[in-house]
Amino acid sequence: MTDDARIETQNRYLALCREKGWLSDDNIELWPDDDEARIEMARGLFGLALVSNTDSLFLDFKAQIDAETLEADPDIGEAREIAATITEKQKKALLTIADDFLDSVVYTFMLQLDRFDHGFIKLQLQRSDPEECTPIPDSEIDIISDNHNELFQDSLQWKEDFSLGTDIGRREPCRF
């Protein structure tokens, strides 16, 4: 994506925040006093961050395949039928790009959790009783903490440790 496109999309997201009353004209966050409204704003800002990242990845993908002027077809069925007819070399290229895209999505999602612009995201696991399916009191485990790597750093290792990887045709984890 070009710098101009990034600025244009960023301005669109800032305008959306202003329309919702979450941001002043001076780009100051306007947190409401009401608990429900604060929850709605926090969830909305998180959703906006995720969607803006996927928009950016989509625009980058379009640029990689020289398709800036094209749009995704609304009919996924037809797209699957067409993809089934491409050559093996084209399929391999598509799989490589899809694998890279998936890695990028995980990486940017983890980065968003680690470095959310609007505050600290608390992510916990609370263990549960397997028979009763009820939470075990005082069993919370912080998944995001200052004592560990940031999640985006771990995401590369997770692919190496947990993915079926090359057994299913994925690439080896990419180290930056």
Q: Could you please describe the fold and organization of this structure?
A:
53% of the residues lie in helices and 9% in strands. Helix 1 runs antiparallel to helix 2 and helix 2 runs antiparallel to helix 4.
Q: Averaged pLDDT, please?
A: 89
Poorly predicted regions: none
Q: Could you tell me the strand content as a percent range?
A: 5-15%
Largest sheet: 2 strands, antiparallel
Write down how many β-strands occur, each being a DSSP E stretch of 2 or more residues.
Answer: 2
Task: Provide a count of the helices.
Answer: 5
Total of domains: 2
Which structural class is indicated by helix and strand composition? mainly alpha
Report the principal-axis shape: globular
Which H/E pattern describes the elements?
HHHHEEH
